[in-house]
Design a protein that fits this description.
Structural class: alpha/beta
Number of strands: 5
Largest sheet: 5 strands, parallel
Strand content: 5-15%
CATH superfamily of the largest domain: PhyR, sigma-like (SL) domain
Helix content: 55-70%
Strand order of the largest sheet: 2-1-3-4-5
Radius of gyration: 18 Å
Shape: globular
Order of helices and strands: HHHHHHHHHEHEHEHEEH
Number of helices: 13
CATH architecture of the largest domain: Up-down Bundle
Number of domains: 2
Length: 263
């Protein structure tokens, strides 16, 4: 496999990580682009990327860590993103990096440590601290849009265990719109393909038309969203999902507290 092909295969997931870390598609993509530009200009870095996913994420993290203090003001494209970045400054970034890498991205503590330049034990401590921060977050009401009953029940149990309230579940676009109109959820968990052939993307667009609410997509088809052809969801979990990944996504969504339509 050529270097270009290998990087391209990992790029959608690096962009997902970058968006979750920064709270902004524009900001996340800017850091990913800077990482690729750095690799083109540095033969040693370019050679390291041939060793797989860990060096790519390590290169990204080094660039993000060195620039994160200056980047928010330059990249804030909306009031939502600016508010998210203000919150970001008040939270130690290392905790979120460790949590995102080990849960959302599925790296081992050892690999996450290699990416962050830390020992595995330090990563584990950071993850524990991040989980404690999640547990301290205020609760909200959650709408689950999922057409598989067992998965819907699993998500209900997980969301409830985190102290949040289920304001409703929906298996179709119409049901989702009705539940949202009646209950005004504070968070939406949505699948893409729904029971009657309708789209979770359209259901979310309907809901965002009623007002701003954080949205997490949980789907077996992430490649349909991670194309770069349209504004993409900041929070995306791949099926079959790990509960820790959903928990992390919920934490990030509530932390940033912003959303934007998928137009």
């Amino acid at each position: 496999m050529s270097l270009g092909t290998q990087v391209a295969a990992n790029l959608p997931y690096l962009r997902r990580y970058a968006r979750a870390l920064t709270g902004s598609q524009a900001s996340g993509d800017a850091f990913v682009r800077a990482t690729l530009e750095a690799a083109l200009a540095d033969n040693e870095l370019k050679a390291a990327l041939a060793d797989g996913k860990v060096p790519l994420y390590r290169a990204f993290n080094q660039i993000w860590s060195s620039a994160c203090e200056d980047a928010p003001k330059a990249n804030a494209a909306s009031q939502h993103e600016s508010a998210a970045q203000d919150r970001l400054r008040r939270v130690t970034p290392l905790n979120r990096q460790a949590l995102l890498l080990t849960t959302l991205e599925g790296f081992s503590a050892e690999d996450a440590g290699a990416i962050m330049g830390l020992a595995a034990a330090e990563v584990e401590n950071l993850v524990r601290d991040a989980v404690e921060e999640i547990d301290r977050e205020s609760t909200t009401s959650v709408l689950i849009i999922e057409d598989e009953p067992l998965i819907s029940m699993q998500l209900e149990d997980l969301v409830s265990s985190l102290g949040h309230e289920i304001c409703g579940t929906a298996a179709t676009r119409t049901q989702a719109r009705e539940v949202a109109a009646e209950n005004s959820p504070g968070l939406v968990l949505a699948d893409i393909q729904l029971a009657d052939g309708s789209s979770g993307l359209d259901a979310v667009d309907d809901i965002l038309g009623m007002g701003s609410v954080p949205v997490i997509f949980i789907t077996a088809y992430p490649e349909r969203l991670l194309t770069g052809d349209r504004p993409e969801p900041t929070y995306l979990v791949t099926k079959p999902f790990k509960e820790a990944a959903v928990r992390t996504a919920i934490s990030q969504a509530l932390f940033f507290g912003s959303s934007r339509p998928l137009a």
